[in-house]
Amino acid sequence: MNPMRTPISRLRALFTTRRDDARLAEEIDAHLDFLAADFERRGLSPREARFAARREFGGATQVQEEHRDQRGLPLLASIAGDFRYGLAQIRKSPGFAAAAILTLALGIGANTVIYRALDAVAFRPLPVRDPGNLRILVENHRPTNFDYPLYRDMATRQRTLDSLFASGFVNSRLGGAQGSQPLPLAIVSGNYFSGLGARVAQGRPLLPADDRSEAGPVAVISDLFWEKQFHRGSDALGKTLRIANADVTVVGIAAPEFYGDFLGLEPDLWVPMSLQPRIMSADWLKSDEMRWLTVMARLAPGGSPRRAATALEALRRRLQPKTALDVHLALEPGARGITQGRDLVEGLVFALMALVAVVLLIACCNLANLLLGRGATRTHEIGVRLALGAGRGRVVRQLLTESLALSIIGGVAAYALAAWAWQFLIASVDMQRYLSQWDWHAPLFTAAATVLAACLFSLAPALVTTKVDLLTALQSGRRSYSAGHRSQRLGRTLVAAQVSVSLLLLYGAALLGRSFWNLQHRDLGFRPQGLLMAKLDVELDFSNTARDAAIGRPLLDRLNNLPGVVSAAIASAGPFGNSSYTSALSAPGHPSEENSHHVAFVSPRYFETMGIRIVAGRGIEETDHATAPKVAVISQSVARRLFGDANPVGRLVSETPNYDDREALRIVGVANDACFTSARDGAPLVFYIPLAQEMEPVTSVMVRTAAEPRSMIAAVRSALRETAPDRRIEAIEPAQEAVGSTVSSDFLLTTFTGGFSLLALALTSLGVYSVVAYAMSGRKREIGIRLALGATRTDVTRMVAREFAVLVGGSAVVGAAAALAMARLARGSLFGVAPNDYLSLGAAVLVLTAVAALAVGIPARRASRLDPMDALRQE
Prior knowledge:
Distance between the termini: 65 Å
Helix content: 40-55%
Structural class: alpha+beta
Strand content: 5-15%
Shape: globular
């Protein structure tokens, strides 16, 4: 006998129930007719024979049920019936269903959105072949860049890796240097696509032969660029694109899911290394000083990352014998690609994930309270079921199935809400190709969250609701007092948990709000108001005297002569710019740690334009030209470190760890400390050198305006294009916006925390309201007697308020203690505010108390307005 025959036949019976039932009914009727005929032959009348046949055969309904159980899957059929009954119950209570579905949609939807972000930045691997074998080459376990000659020599001589490939992200222009369309592109080694394991949808990838100088200029375009530039036309392959000073031929179109190896930077094109000198103004392929390449590796089958890193380190020592002894190569996991600040992003998203999980927990507590109140109205129904022989477990299963049906509807609504919110989110960030990728993780997470939520909010109410006294449950219009008391105890416990957690979230939101306010209003050391900043491509190079005379001076004159401009300056590595330099700075008898100081190369009028106060000496002036004695301006923090309270003006320093007379710079001024990279960072050690005395590229242009800075953007852009038409402008924005972008993660965390804490507060208030309203509905007789005996409405209101004030107050005390303890874990996210900030705690308690008082007061006031005779008559 085939062992699969019975299960298959049972499964098939699920879809043929009606037909089989009709056939079975015909067979039963035939048996009854046969028995009735037999009894008639024995002398009974037709009516008596029919009754005798039915007694002989037994219950036809029971026979049908037994037959149905034997041929089908009774448990599955029973659950399906429970689902149908549950949906009918949901339709009977549209108000309750709408509240529950909305609560679930908000709670589960928020968790789905944040989980998708967490999955994108923390879990999702690159869409390439075998991403687990990818590694990133780093120094001392920190991300770093490498120069091309070193990469080339290591790539050709290493023998332990399957491949070693490199990439560098740059911004160019489509249509030439003066083109109007910005073009982000990646300059990659010829084995980039094969080493990364990335496929192309059409054409061919870049090959090692494309790296040769005599090779024709080619490019692989992204799927997004193919759509944007060629409208997905089949003739894109073979087309020629003008990029800076090179005409490149499109030889391939990347796969739609491929966005490169750098999370957050999605290039439109990938071009080979041989094109670098023609795309950029300087030849970096021959320079061992320009560290601009990110290097990745693919392990050989069965290869050891540690052994490969050791071999690369030995190879690097042979190629560069002067490498510092404390600098070592390592291979870090590269399955998720390269990203800057991944730890910061992951920490932010993990914090938000914990936050929305707490909100979902509060939502489940709230739904449990709603189910307790609803279950109290179904005591009679449940009593009837139990009296007719249904086991308590069977009734609990029915209630759980109803809750699961409700949760499924809420989960579907949550996923739809999350999909809408996700589209809104990715439209606001520059990672649409990466974040818009669909996978099964999000729907699976939503399904799991839906089932988990159903278990959390339905199990305890189902157990409490089904534990009833049958005698009182069967008395129509009366509730089981035992069940009511248990429901009230559970409901109050849930409310206490909600109040405590809500206070914790409110306190966290208050702390983060104060912290963000402090960041926005801190003294930056310069005046961002009225300041316009332009970020220029790092290739912008005023590095020699001829270029400074030919371009730098006309640019400064042109900007300073614009109507509405108070002053203008240019700098290399200015505050909040797109590049940063660090260096040592020492004085006689005061050595310095290497690269412990920020250095900025600035033009005359820099301090005036930035609004940085000179506290001693002078700033950088026109007399500090290339042939003049080398000078420097230091910040107050540098002055204190090197010279204490002594006047540093006129002293000598050098850009070396130990003071060197040959590299001496004379200090001509001391500037006020200023934030250099972020509003959150403290004032770093900074010294300023005249731009005319150092060969450094200019990356920033600062313009102080008399009018609103944004109104001057067009004029400044026009001046830059007229004076330096071959220089690319990355961004022009008011300094206040540039400062704000450095605290964007603080803004997001504060906004999300505030929003979710308000959502939690709303859910908590609904939970308090439902518990109080349910308690009052069960105490109508008591309240009616009190009113009949002379109690005033104010007395009743005070009684209810006093009773629940103890509950809310005790929960708030527990929540406050937990909030003060948990706030210490968020110390690193705070600025200018202590974790035990009692002002923020007091504000959170005040808001929570006001909302709880409103939630208690409304049903209490309604209860006090009962008519005593009506209340007693109903009972």
